[in-house]
Amino acid sequence: MNDALLWALNTLLQDLLTPLMANSAETTGTPFSDWLTNATPPSSATSSSPSTVSAAINAAAAATGLAPELLRAVAQTESDFNPEAVSSAGAVGVMQLMPGTAAGLGVNPYNVSQNVLGGAEYLKQLLADFHQNLPLALAAYNAGPGAVTQYHGIPPYAQTQAYVQKVLSVYQNSSTDA
User: Fold this and answer.
1) pLDDT tens digits for 28-68?
2) 61: alpha, beta or left, given left = phi > 0 and alpha = psi -120 to 50?
3) DSSP character at residue 43
4) Which residues cross the membrane (predicted)?
């Protein structure tokens, strides 16, 4: 089964069954519920191969309508495409999702496909919140939406300013290469 199909099936099952499992003591602790909750199917979807990360990026781009080049630029800047990356602040995976953000999005940040989809969904949400202003959405992805709102623009943090410039540069260079 290809990675995109497995990801879509896993996401659909999780979306449909997670609310039921939360209300049912009968399904708690079964191998299926554990697999669904932990999203660790026995397949290449959890491997850290470059093709898996690329497939996850393509699937997340298709699911969210975001450009795959944009998601690649964020993934490269965040983790250099490393699904096992963990920041000193606790951000996890390819898209460096904070555990609370991942939980709010309903994704397992340790699953490559879900991590990338979660990052893409979060970025799409930030783009909507900041009226499709990509630099502001990227700043919010890095520093948090509260900081962007507080400063009425990209916060005066050197790390965030460098982050926005790097993602935009990688994205623009990948767009011109295509």
Assistant:
1) 444 444 444 554 433 333 445 668 999 999 999 999 999 99
2) alpha
3) S
4) none
Long-range contacts of 11-16 (CB under 8 A, 24+ apart): 11/113, 11/114, 11/117, 14/39, 14/106, 15/106
- DSSP at 86: B
- Residue 7's identity, in one-letter code, is W
Helix, strand counts (H, E) of the chain: 9, 0
| Residues noted as catalytic | 78
Split into its structural domains, the chain has a count of: 1
Please report the pLDDT score of residue 95 as a whole number: 98
Residue 175: what pLDDT? 73
Answer for the pair 154, 161: CB distance below 8 angstroms, yes or no: yes
Contact 66, 123 (CB under 8 A): yes
Residue 86 β-bridge partners? 92
> Are 145 and 126 within 8 A, CB to CB?
yes
For the chain, what percent of residues have pLDDT higher than 90?
69
Q: What's 164's domain CATH number?
A: 1.10.530.10
